[in-house]
Specification:
1 helix, mainly beta, 12 strands
Length: 229
């Protein structure tokens, strides 16, 4: 119930802060894993929309992760004739290395590819793709997780669909996106908060969001917490 109320409270923030931006940074997937065959699932809501995060370790030192974000803004006349006036969609996949530095300290480096679109779905749609590298260092325990992720993102605004006409703008941008991830709870279930910034490394021609914050929950499966207390 509290998470539902929080989601409703954040909806005006999402719509107000994101509707004019082409590139909307997502919250990075920061699993901070401990062992092989570990599975993690997270759901969140924030200024970058509604999000889902999934991570799995086939065996120790190797992680696979996927992340998605979306939101839509409805507009129209009356109470029944609402159409989508703005939509944001983004999805990515990543893989990489992680290791235990000590009983609770973790280090991981993930890299991957993502693609997204923003704008009006029918006649004013803008597409971008992204390659990213995200090292993370942090701690993972039965009751508390914390991680710092200085992600480097290479974004290319590569296509527009405007009034039935397709154009290829080819506008690149490079961003440094430092993010803090905090989780607190009880072993398999934790509440999660993420907050991050986006700094362009050079002049960027397309619009972008400069920050984000999200709240949600995080589930961990197939982990022997007794080993890491």
């Amino acid at each position: 119930m509290k998470l539902h109320r929080l989601s409703l409270a954040l909806l005006p923030i999402i719509f107000w802060s994101s509707c004019q931006s082409l590139y909307i940074p997502n919250g990075p997937n920061v699993p901070l894993m401990s062992q092989g065959d570990e599975l993690q699932v997270g759901l969140n809501v924030g200024t970058n929309g509604y999000g889902a995060q999934i991570a799995y370790s086939p065996y120790y030192h190797w992680a696979i992760a996927t992340t998605g974000n979306t939101f839509s803004i409805k507009g129209g006349n009356g109470y029944t004739n609402f159409e989508t006036s703005y939509r944001h969609l983004y999805g990515e996949a990543a893989t990489g290395y992680y290791t235990r530095l000590s009983k609770h300290a973790r280090l991981e480096v993930l890299g991957g590819y993502g693609a997204g679109q923003t704008g009006q779905p029918d006649d004013d749609k803008h597409l971008y793709r992204r390659i990213f590298v995200q090292p993370s260092i942090g701690i993972s325990s039965a009751f508390f997780d914390a991680g710092f992720t200085p992600r480097l993102s290479f974004v290319n605004h590569y296509r527009d669909f405007i009034a039935g006409v397709t154009t290829k703008p080819n506008e690149p941008g490079t961003f440094l996106e430092p993010t803090i991830t905090l989780r607190a709870g009880m072993e398999e279930f934790k509440f999660q908060m993420q907050g991050g910034l986006a700094f362009p490394m050079a002049k960027t021609n397309f619009s972008y969001r400069k920050s984000f914050i999200s709240f949600g929950f995080h589930l961990t499966f197939i982990k022997d917490f007794e080993k890491f207390r």
